[in-house]
Amino acid sequence: MNAPPAAVARAxxxxxxxxxxxxxxxxxxxxxxQVEGCPPDQYPVIGFSRCxxxxxxxxxxxxxxxxxxxxxxxxxxxxQVRVEAGDNVAVADTLKAGTGxxxxxxxxxxxxxxxxxxxxxxxxxxxxxxxxxxxxxxVRVHLEREETATRFRYELLLAPELExxxxxxEEHIARSPVRxxxxxxxxxxxx
Length: 191
Prior knowledge:
The chain is an alpha+beta fold.
């Protein structure tokens, strides 16, 4: 078995089994993500507190030739939700009035994570354009919910050797796709 990647080991990954549902193969990751201690037919899934099966997207989730982007499914534990996007799975959770827990990120943390990950990816693209591979960049995001506005505060953290590239990196994160999406007026409507 491969040693666990540091991020997976820190996140406390659990093992999940592969199975077959009808003719569709249930997918739970690949061998490159195996965690030491998982049997050969199991794979790690970050955030699960018990064994879960993860299926490929069935035809029923594809409408008008377009794949469903994200689906959230309530789990038996209070306020836990399994979030699926294609083959990727996570658990969200919250604590309200003493009920629930912390098995995964809270919903607003997922929103912060969406922006932070997109901005970090965009930030890494600027040095990559200059031939600097594996640039050490971080973006921290904090969501502030106010009565009349929602504010995303972010902080760009760079390795000292990248400080000279800060203006180019800031330009990239200003154009990051999730930031652009969240900067437009939002509409919520049933599908």
